[in-house]
Design goal:
This protein is an alpha/beta fold and about 475 residues long. The protein has 16 helices and 8 strands. The protein folds into 3 domains: about 220 residues, Rossmann fold; about 90 residues, Ubiquitin-like (UB roll), CATH 3.10.20.600; about 110 residues, de novo design (two linked rop proteins) (Up-down Bundle), CATH 1.20.1440. The strands form 2 sheets. Strands 3-2-1-4 form a 4-stranded parallel β-sheet, with helices on both faces. β2, α7 and β3 form a beta-alpha-beta unit.
C-alpha cells in the first residue's frame, strides 16, 4: 500500500487549520495499530501513567473540554461528580450517533478507533476505573468491525487488559452493539439498554449517572468525539489546547454539513473562530449554496435544534452565542436548505422522525409527536384545516411549555420561542419535535396558510338520518 499520497476518508473534507483528531484520516490504514503507533499513538497514555490520576483529571478540567454529544457540558467538571469512595464505577462511551444529519462520530470510530480507545484508557486512569463499555449504534457495521479489530490489537499489544504498559493499571473494554434507537442517545436510556432493559430514559432525580448510573453505581457517560480529544490534550497540554478556538470554547470541533451546499462533508474547525458564513461559503469549506441559490434556513445542531436563517450567518461556531441567539450547536450536525425548500415538508420530515423514535414512556411525547405528524401531513397533502396552525402550537405548548400563542409569531417578535426548551417529559425528545414546528411557523406561516384548504367546516345535520328497513 502506498501511503505517501493522502487518501482522506470518504465523507471527510480536509481543510486548512489545526487537526487534533482527524490527522490520521489521510492514511488508508489509519485504523490499524501499526499506523497509530507510527503517528504518536498511545503517547498520551504513557504520559498519563507517569502522572497522578488527579493531575490527569486536572489537565482535562483545565482544558475546558466541552462535551461533543449535544449538551456541551465540560468533561472535566462532569468527571468530578463521581462521589468519593464509591466503587466500582464505570465509563460508558456513547457511540449511538442517531441525531438527523450527524455522522462525524461514525468517521472517528471507522477511521481512528485506537484514538478512541486511548481516550477511554486515559479517562479510566484519571477516574480510577477498571471497566469501560463502548456502546455503538447497531447500523454502524463498519465502525463495530473496526473497533473490534482495534480492541483485539490493543489487548494483544498490552495496551488494554491487565497491568497496562507494565503499570499497576488494568482496564477491560467491552464493545456493545445497540439496536439502533435514537432514544438511547440520552444517557440514562443508554444505561438502561446496557443493563438489558428497553432503552427508555430514567426518572430524574438523580440527574447525573455520575452519582447513580450503570448497575446503580457511579457512571461517566462521554461522547466518542469528546474522548477522542483527550490523547491530544494529555500529550500536548491544556495550554496548547486553549491556544486554539475561543476563550470559553477552546480547541477544535467536527461539524457534519449536509443539505444544499456544493461540498457537504465533515470538517474539523476551530471553535468560536469560524462562522456559519465561513463554513457555508468559504472556498476552504462548503464553497457556497448549490446551483447558485439563496439560503433559506439551516438547522445548526441536529434535527432537535431550532432553525436559523440568513441573519444568523455571522454567528461563530461556539455554544454560547448560538444559545443566546435561540438555538444550539448540539450534535455538530448542520443541515442547509436553499430557497427551493418547502418549509412545511421539511418540518414534516423532522417531526416524523421524532414521532417514530419516541419510546412512548411519557404521554405528552408519545401522543403529542404523533398528533403533530398527523396534522402536518394533512396540511402538506392539502387537507389542512384553518385551525391547524393554532392546534400545532397548542400541542407544542403541552409538550414544551412556553409563549407559543399565535400572536407571538409576528415579524416584530421572532424571538418568542424560549430556549433551552422547557419540557413536560423526562427527556428532550418531545421538545425536539416542537423546535421545527415553531421555527417554521414563525418564519414561513404563509406557506402553511397556502397549503391549508380555506373551507368552512362541514355542518352536522340536525335532521334524523333515515335508515332503510
Amino acid at each position: 500500500m502506498n501511503n505517501s499520497a493522502p487518501a482522506f476518508a470518504a465523507g471527510y473534507i480536509n481543510n486548512d487549520g489545526p487537526k487534533l483528531i482527524t490527522e490520521r484520516f489521510q492514511f488508508e490504514d489509519s485504523f490499524t495499530l501499526e499506523r497509530f503507533l507510527n503517528t504518536g499513538g498511545y503517547d498520551g497514555l504513557r504520559k498519563a501513567l507517569e502522572r497522578k490520576p488527579s493531575e490527569v483529571h486536572d489537565e482535562v478540567r483545565e482544558a475546558i473540554l466541552l462535551g461533543r454529544g449535544g449538551a456541551g457540558f465540560p468533561a472535566g467538571v462532569k468527571w468530578g461528580f463521581c462521589p468519593e469512595g464509591v466503587w466500582p464505577r464505570y465509563l460508558v462511551v456513547n457511540g449511538d450517533e442517531s441525531e438527523p444529519g450527524t455522522y462525524k462520530d461514525r468517521l472517528l470510530m471507522e477511521r481512528d478507533p485506537h484514538q478512541l480507545i486511548e481516550g477511554c484508557l486515559i479517562a479510566c486512569y484519571a477516574l480510577g476505573l477498571s471497566q469501560c463499555f463502548l456502546y455503538v449504534r447497531g447500523e454502524m457495521a463498519l465502525a463495530q468491525e473496526r473497533i473490534a479489530n482495534a480492541l483485539n490489537e490493543a489487548y494483544e499489544a498490552g495496551y488494554v487488559g491487565r497491568n497496562i504498559l507494565g503499570q499497576d493499571f488494568s482496564v477491560d473494554i467491552v464493545l456493545h452493539w445497540g439496536a439502533g434507537a435514537y432514544i438511547v442517545g440520552e444517557e440514562t436510556a443508554l444505561i438502561e439498554s446496557l443493563e438489558g432493559n428497553r432503552g427508555m430514559p430514567r426518572l430524574k432525580p438523580p440527574y447525573f449517572p455520575a452519582a447513580i448510573g450503570l448497575y446503580g453505581q457511579p457512571t461517566i457517560v462521554n461522547n466518542v468525539e469528546t474522548l477522542s480529544n483527550i490523547p491530544w490534550i494529555i500529550d500536548n497540554g491544556a495550554s496548547a489546547y486553549k491556544e486554539m478556538g475561543s476563550e470559553t470554547s477552546p480547541g477544535t470541533r467536527l461539524f457534519a454539513i449536509s443539505g444544499h451546499v456544493n461540498r457537504p462533508g465533515v470538517y474539523e474547525v476551530e471553535q468560536g473562530v469560524t462562522t456559519f458564513r465561513d463554513l457555508f461559503y468559504g472556498e476552504n469549506f462548503c464553497q457556497g449554496i448549490r446551483n447558485g441559490n439563496e439560503l433559506k434556513m439551516f438547522i445548526p445542531g441536529g434535527g432537535s435544534a431550532p432553525w436559523f436563517f440568513e441573519e444568523h450567518l455571522d454567528l461563530p461556531l461556539e455554544a454560547r452565542p448560538v444559545g443566546e441567539a435561540g438555538s444550539m450547536l448540539g450534535s455538530g450536525a448542520i443541515v442547509v436548505m436553499d430557497e427551493t425548500t418547502d418549509a412545511v415538508k421539511a418540518c414534516l420530515r423532522v417531526v416524523r422522525f421524532f414521532a417514530r423514535e419516541s419510546c412512548g414512556k411519557c404521554s405528552p411525547c408519545r401522543e403529542g409527536t404523533t398528533w403533530e405528524e398527523k396534522i402536518l401531513r394533512r396540511i402538506y397533502e392539502g387537507d389542512g384545516r384553518p385551525s391547524d396552525i393554532e392546534l400545532l402550537l397548542d400541542i407544542g405548548d403541552n409538550i414544551s411549555p412556553g409563549p407559543y400563542p399565535v400572536a407571538a409569531f409576528s415579524d416584530q417578535n421572532l424571538e418568542a420561542v424560549p430556549f433551552p426548551p422547557r419540557q413536560t417529559t423526562i427527556c428532550p425528545l418531545g421538545p425536539s419535535s416542537v423546535a421545527p414546528i415553531t421555527s417554521a411557523i414563525r418564519r414561513f406561516r404563509a406557506e402553511f396558510e397556502t397549503l391549508i384548504t380555506q373551507r368552512d367546516s362541514i355542518p352536522v345535520s340536525a335532521a334524523p338520518i333515515e335508515v332503510e328497513q
